[in-house]
TrEMBL record:
Ubiquitin-like protein involved in cytoplasm to vacuole transport (Cvt), autophagy vesicles formation, mitophagy, and nucleophagy. Conjugation with ATG5 through a ubiquitin-like conjugating system involving also ATG7 as an E1-like activating enzyme and ATG10 as an E2-like conjugating enzyme, is essential for its function. The ATG12-ATG5 conjugate functions as an E3-like enzyme which is required for lipidation of ATG8 and ATG8 association to the vesicle membranes. GO terms for biological process: autophagosome assembly; autophagosome maturation; autophagy of mitochondrion; glycophagy; piecemeal microautophagy of the nucleus; protein transport. Its main location: membrane. This is Ubiquitin-like protein ATG12.
Amino acid sequence: MSALSPAVTPGPSPALGAPPPHLAQAAQGGKLSPRQALDATKQKDLTKVVVRFKATGNAPIMKQNFYKITASNQFRTVIAFLRKELGWKPADSLFLYINSSFSPAPDDTVANLFKCFGTEGHLIVNYSSTQAWG
């Protein structure tokens, strides 16, 4: 190894956390049978992400603003959950933003958003009845 090349250690990035349990065996060099691999992909990841909701503009403030949401859920689940908590109909406009900056796609996973944009152990979701940012 030359003096210019950085030392690289195999394995998952510490920023992304440990691999899911169904991939841990393969990561450690163990081989999965095709049946085990298929069953492992069907298992739902039950880890939770703490989501903090913050009202923006004229949106009503929630009494409880911290919730634990399953990490493997798509963001559309968060949208539906917030509509239910606020008592808003599907026709009512609802704008959601991550960290007061951008609106994620409904098919993004909560885990991916948390890994990329989590702040102090929370995923901060700003909500408003009118467009607030970009």
